[in-house]
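Subject: sequence -> structure tokens, single chain

Hey, anyone have a minute? Need the predicted structure for the following. Not urgent.
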Amino acid sequence: MKNIQIDVAVLGAGTAGLAAYRAAKAAGKTAVIIESGVYGTTCARVGCMPSKLLIAAAEAAHSVDRFEAFGLRLDGAIRVDSAAVMGRVKRERDRFVGLVVEGVEKIPQSDRLMGHAAFSGLHTLLVNSDDQLQNVEISFKTAVIATGSSPQVFPLLREAGDRLIINDDVFDWDVLPDSVAVFGPGVIGLELGQALHRLGVKIHLFGRGGIGAGLSDPSVKTYAEQTFKNEFSIDFDAQVSHIARTEAGVLIHWKNAEGVLSSQTFDYVLAATGRTPNVHDIGIDRTGITLDNKGIPVFDRETLQCGSSGIFIAGDANALVPLLHEAADEGKIAGTNAASFPKINKGLRRTPIAVVFTDPQIAIIGQRLSDIDPHVRLVGEVSFEDQGRSRVMLRNKGILRVYAHAHTGRFLGAEMMGPDAEHLAHLLAWAHQAGMTVATMLDMPFYHPVIEEGLRTALRDVAAKLTARSAVEQVAA
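Reply:
Had a minute. Here:
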């Protein structure tokens, strides 16, 4: 068995792992990065980028629906060439993956290992290496767990047999199927479900307990649910009693929230029911680190340190915030602290920002409504249905709710569904991270006519409530 002694061992060569490795090397430490699968991050290979390629095609096809209202006439029907659609998705996906792999291959060969790594102790790893003639034992001073996550599939869905797919499989299709049952109205389910629908695939989206996507504001949740229901077939609270693989496809029996029984056969079942951290087969139990009830190491959210050990955990593996930019930040924090251990520091944690690339888009910035003490929050609101620029573009669907501290006027967060939410979300995230008050935000420039004027309306709404509250408090005093 080959033996390696190293300062920092990094498990996983995804976004978090690569950031951790680079941080450790930048600190002057020796490091090795171990990958058990193929190179290429989840985002580039099966996540953000291929899904956005599919969504872009869907949006282009759907734009024709607004032609009539604009006074435009299209002779003949738009035809979706699904083979061409998927051809572009795969070509561009492969290009994005290639760029990531190119970066990985710039890492010295001596610092890269392919194979499955598992802890054999608090300072040792065993790697069943794929590219070496013998297994490798690594003795390390510190380590970073950045092993990512995998799709979670509930047992009932496995009854679909060979017609059960996960989002990874969608991007390997050569042509689109006729029908798909999508389970899980979270980010992945909503994005892929709507995109497939707009590309001509008959879909039905199944959920339990309402829309996911991280929304907590009842007003935004209700608006979003109704918007999606108006476009395609959805049961946000379905009780599925039976799934069976048949000659015709997959037969599903279910009861909706009103108790109505239905059954339908689909070509495929898409499981978009969340992801599970890849931490259950890497021998964490041999390190003595404390695990939570899901088998995930207990760690400090600011330093990413597992207990008092020299092991850190970053990215999807810690199930904290499974987003690429968060994984990159966490990888850097974990790698830096692994290099400086036992001296560790809190790393830069940015304002939380999340975007769902549906149409209209969904965005959550800063604190959600449910995160804020109701005794110290005030809410401002705007509807995009009558907002000028939105109506001009015939994209006038959505609602924005902004939250402010009732005593200080500080902007606390927002939840929204609306046009160009991805851009509004960034403006709001910057304002939140800068610690701005509603009054200061209203002092910023707003051009006319732009969608951002809708944000100004919501801020004016909460500003008026802040003024009214202050007046009441002065009278009471």
